[in-house]
Design goal:
The chain has 13 helices and 2 strands, in the order H-H-H-H-H-H-H-H-H-H-H-H-E-H-E. The chain is an all-alpha fold. The protein folds into 3 domains: about 250 residues, no CATH class; about 30 residues, no CATH class; about 90 residues, no CATH class.
Length: about 375
């Protein structure tokens, strides 16, 4: 038996609201996992302030609701029209289940990827991840080769499985309820559904906008204190990825159309009068000093993410890179590039500079060397 439209629409709304709340809860789980897993030392005045820290989660709920409202809008409109026509069918609930499963699966994958991304870069995931798509094999190797990534991967897969199962169960339950509703349809019922649906769609659009005022919600709305971690914790990773992608695609932010590599290379060779050196560089030149050199070269070799197994130091059993000692490789490279080798090499076990990215640390290290303020910690002579 088919029921009056308002009761059927109530079933539709309860179904959509259940999905919406479940998605917000899963987003909260990802945010709480990030909060607990990151190695961050709060200042003394913030460490014990639970009320201040909870502000990041409240703003996170705000941003999560924006993404959830984006996903909710289409099913809400479809089921509203179905309720106006007093229509229900199993395929309708299957469609909404597949729709929610697809969009929220992608959202949960992004939220899971944000955990290791934030731990490494100390910022919410953004459009920079597209640069890794050109190195699929390397990226996959890094993901599955690092044991610390296993838990975010497991959490992402688990959230997808639980959500899909929950959405399917809710769809079956509310379909049975909608199908059992009485078939009477009156003009008053249609007007009630029309008004109620319009109000719900208006609330959904307001949720997408995020706030009242001239401009919709922006990432800056998550910043509420002086702590950088708490300010970024409230930003939804899906929201940040979408906004950064849209910003990159603006006309003023698009990549410049530069000349081809071949044209650039020919012009450099022409203007600098260089023919290059085979197997070294097309713009390299060989400089030979007359007489015996009386000064030594100073070369800084920065090696990122070199483990003990590859370095042949720090207690490693191996003592080579591709079968050769590291010292021999460095000596050969210095002789090949600069012709005059160094008398000694020092390996710095630890250098401490305030910065989150290696580029910034490199600049500060070079500046400190320039002004004579750099210091070596447990330096080891290897040549």
């Amino acid at each position: 038996m088919k029921g009056i439209s308002i009761k059927r629409f109530e079933c539709y709304l309860l179904y959509l609201l259940s999905i919406h709340v479940a998605a917000l809860f899963i987003f909260f789980i990802f945010r709480f996992t990030l909060f607990c897993s990151i190695d961050y030392q709060f200042p003394a005045e913030i460490k014990g302030d639970v009320l201040l820290q909870s502000g990041a989660f409240l703003r996170g709920l705000w941003f999560d609701n924006v993404i959830a409202c984006y996903i909710l809008l289409l099913p809400l409109v479809v089921l509203w029209v179905a309720a106006l026509c007093n229509y229900t069918a199993k395929w309708l609930f299957r469609f909404t289940t597949v729709y929610f499963s697809c969009f929220y699966s992608v959202s949960f994958v992004i939220a899971a990827a944000n955990i290791p991304y934030f731990e490494y870069f100390f910022k919410t995931i953004n459009s920079s991840i597209y640069n890794w798509f050109g190195y699929g094999g390397t990226t996959a190797g890094l993901m599955f080769g690092e044991s610390s990534y296993y838990f975010p991967i497991f959490l992402g897969l688990l959230s997808i499985v639980v959500f899909v199962w929950g959405a399917s169960s809710l769809a079956s339950y509310f379909y049975r309820r909608a199908e059992k509703a009485a078939p009477q349809i009156s003009l008053l019922s249609r007007v009630a559904v029309l008004v109620a649906g319009a109000i719900c769609i208006g609330l959904c659009l307001f949720g997408i906008r995020g706030r009242m005022g001239y401009n919709p919600i922006k990432v800056s709305q998550a910043y509420y204190c002086e702590d950088p971690f708490l300010n970024q914790l409230g930003v939804n990773p899906v929201f940040n990825l979408l906004t950064s992608t849209l910003d990159d695609n603006r006309k003023e932010n698009r990549t410049l159309h530069l000349m081809s590599e071949e044209d650039a290379l020919s012009k450099v060779q022409k203007y600098l009068h260089r023919q290059g050196i085979d197997r070294l560089s097309p713009i390299a030149r060989k400089v030979e000093r007359e007489g015996t050199p009386n000064r030594r070269n100073v070369v800084l070799v920065f090696m990122e993410s070199m483990s003990a197994n590859l370095m042949g130091t720090f207690g490693s059993d191996t003592d080579s890179l591709s079968g050769q000692p590291l010292s021999a490789i460095l000596e050969f490279q210095s002789f090949l590039l600069l012709r005059y080798s160094y008398q000694s090499w020092y390996l710095f076990h630890a250098l401490f500079f305030s910065g989150y990215h290696e580029t910034e640390c490199h600049e500060r290290f070079c500046d400190s060397c320039l002004f004579g303020t750099a210091y070596r910690i447990a330096g080891e002579r290897i040549l």
